Amino acid sequence: MSEPILSIRGLRKSFGPTEIMRGVDLDLRSAERHALIGPNGAGKSTLFHLVSGHLAPSAGEIRFDGQDIGGRSPQAINRLGLARSFQITNIFPKLSVFENIRLGVMRPRGVQYTFWKVMSRDKAIQRETERLLELVRLTARASTLAGEMAYSEQRSLEIAMTLASDPKLILLDEPMAGMASEETHYTAQLIREVTQGRTLVIVEHDMDVVFALSDRISVLVYGQVIATGTPDEIRNDARVKEAYLGEEVSA
């Protein structure tokens, strides 16, 4: 078996006397869709912050694509090929959809906003922006202000901006939060399509989405991974039912 694209060993994170991550071990395979589930307060967002460089570990190791990234800056980790979205949409509401995605395309190229007018004439950036617009089905909304779109469209826009750096590994933090069932179905299908050939880690509370979208699932409880397996294995794991899923999955 090939080396995991992300390998976490003995990961710990404390805030003062409070230990949030209590020795997490986790391996992600290249090009798999991996869900991270667990009760509120289990440490899911903290784990995302640690992997993406927004927090430094108290102990343990995080290796991405063969390199130790524990404690590196978010920008340095992004340049290695890891991108993430947040629970709250991270877009520019007063810019158009096209301008938002173009900023996302410019960022990994090291182009600053002050060069906007010059870069707006760069054909390569224009083409990539148009490609991402089409990929997330927002071509018809290109000139719309991002803040005027429906929530599900804003999440699609954020996914496009996450893809703009051409990442190997994508972290999505509750992309379906606040959506109606029809929007959830649309967004789940979009995520499935745009993450083909990439590794995806998703934190999501909608269990229907988790079990339909994931190749494997890890369950985080009180800062520790208590189980990792296929959807069927997790569905039938007695420890998982007792600690988190209860009768929800059985139903």
Please explain how this structure is put together:
- With 251 residues, the chain is of the alpha/beta class.
- It has one domain (6-250): P-loop containing nucleotide triphosphate hydrolases (Rossmann fold, 3-Layer(aba) Sandwich), CATH 3.40.50.
- Helices cover 37% and strands 24% of the residues.
- The chain has 11 helices and 10 strands.
- The strands form 2 sheets. A 6-stranded mixed β-sheet has the order 6-7-8-3-9-10, sandwiched between helices. It has a 4-stranded antiparallel β-sheet with strand order 2-1-4-5, with helices on one face.
- Strand 9 and strand 10 (224-229) form a beta hairpin.
- Helix 3 (97-106) crosses helix 5.
How are the SSEs ordered, and which strands pair?
Blueprint: E1 6-15, E2 18-28, E3 33-37, H1 44-52, E4 59-64, E5 67-68, H2 74-80, E6 82-84, H3 97-106, H4 116-119, H5 123-135, H6 151-163, E7 169-173, H7 181-194, E8 199-203, H8 207-213, E9 216-221, E10 224-229, H9 231-235, H10 238-245, H11 247-250
